[in-house]
């Protein structure tokens, strides 16, 4: 059946959370927001485009850093209120220059940094 972006359950701001996961390794890379326009753009171009809440505009991942995400597959969760993006990630996914935004673990009540920044 053809995909209809209107069938997704967006929040009151017209946004839906999108989790980016490495297509090859399964590593969770980041979470960002999408709207119907960014979803359509991503599906059309094949490079992930999010919605920037701070800039209130489309944000093509890697447009300034070169750390692009090529979409391999988009999945919709059972409630249709969250997306999973399976991507080929070029360079680090996080703006802190780490492979993943999830680089802080909670261990025995302490925050522990488990990923170091990637050096160029």
From TrEMBL:
Matches recorded under InterPro entries: PRA-CH, PRib_AMP_CycHydrolase_dom, PRib_AMP_CycHydrolase_sf
Catalytic activity from the UniProt record = 1-(5-phospho-beta-D-ribosyl)-5'-AMP + H2O = 1-(5-phospho-beta-D-ribosyl)-5-[(5-phospho-beta-D-ribosylamino)methylideneamino]imidazole-4-carboxamide
What pathway does the UniProt record associate with this protein?
A: Amino-acid biosynthesis; L-histidine biosynthesis; L-histidine from 5-phospho-alpha-D-ribose 1-diphosphate: step 3/9
Matches recorded under SUPFAM superfamilies: HisI-like
Which GO molecular function terms does the record list?
phosphoribosyl-AMP cyclohydrolase activity
Residues given in the record as Mg(2+) binding sites? 77, 79, 81
Per the UniProt entry, the Enzyme Commission number(s) are 3.5.4.19
Alphabetically list the UniProt keywords: Amino-acid biosynthesis, Cytoplasm, Histidine biosynthesis, Hydrolase, Magnesium, Metal-binding, Zinc
Q: Which cofactor does it need?
A: Mg(2+); Zn(2+)
* Cofactor: how and how many bound: Binds 1 Mg(2+) ion per subunit. Binds 1 zinc ion per subunit.
Gene3D superfamilies in alphabetical order: Phosphoribosyl-AMP cyclohydrolase
Q: Which locations, inside or outside the cell, does it occupy?
A: Cytoplasm
Q: Which residues form the Phosphoribosyl-AMP cyclohydrolase domain?
A: 30-103
Q: Which domain of life is it from?
A: Bacteria
Write out the residues that bind Zn(2+): 78, 94, 101
Work out whether the entry's keyword set contains Amino-acid biosynthesis. yes
Residues of the signal peptide: none
Q: Which Pfam families match?
A: PRA-CH
Family note:
Belongs to the PRA-CH family.
Relate the assembly described in the record.
Answer: Homodimer.
Q: Which PANTHER family does the entry link to?
A: HISTIDINE BIOSYNTHESIS BIFUNCTIONAL PROTEIN, HISTIDINE BIOSYNTHESIS BIFUNCTIONAL PROTEIN HIS7
> What HAMAP family does its record include?
HisI
What protein name applies here? Phosphoribosyl-AMP cyclohydrolase
Q: Which organism is it from?
A: Thioclava arctica
**Name of the encoding gene:** hisI
